[in-house]
Design brief:
Elements: H1 5-23, H2 30-43, E1 57-63, E2 68-76, E3 83-85, E4 98-100, E5 105-109, E6 122-124, E7 129-131
Parallel strand pairs: 2-4, 3-5, 4-6, 5-7
Antiparallel strand pairs: 1-2
């Protein structure tokens, strides 16, 4: 059975639409990108490429009414000889579910801005040199 003229146009439009969707790139959300740059700076790391492609950084696709972007869901840097402090920018990672930085050489206080990570389920900061208030002192 032959396709009608209207059906063939419909399939052609669908084909091009799907091609555009596949070809479009999903980018890291701007606030997560800025936060990661600050966090890396305080760790003495200078990322050379898309942060979501780096080992230890896990990003997930989030779809909202107005955009489609990647959000940082986990930071896992175990025994990586990280030095420096944990940046207050950590609180900007609103989709962060896990922060695992054990066995590094991080110092200073755990920034109170970490309470901005409302979805945080896993927090592992053992064997570092953190000082100051414990997280139990911060309101949840």
């Amino acid at each position: 059975m032959a396709l009608s003229h209207l059906q063939s146009h419909f399939f052609l439009v669908c084909f091009f639409a799907l091609t555009l969707i596949v070809q479009s790139r999903i980018h890291l959300h701007h606030s997560d990108h800025d936060a990661l740059l600050s966090i890396f700076k305080d760790f003495g790391i200078e990322p050379k490429r898309n942060p979501c492609n780096l080992a230890g950084i896990f990003c997930e696709r989030r779809i909202t009414n107005t955009s489609d972007s990647l959000r940082v869901s986990r930071l896992v840097f175990e025994s990586q000889r990280l030095r420096g402090k944990l940046s207050p920018a950590i609180g900007q990672l609103s989709e962060l579910q896990a922060l695992s930085l054990p066995d590094n050489q991080l110092v200073g206080q755990i920034p109170p801005q970490i309470i901005g990570c409302k979805k945080l389920e896993v927090l592992n900061l053992r064997n570092n040199g953190f000082s100051g208030k414990s997280l139990s002192k911060y309101p949840h």
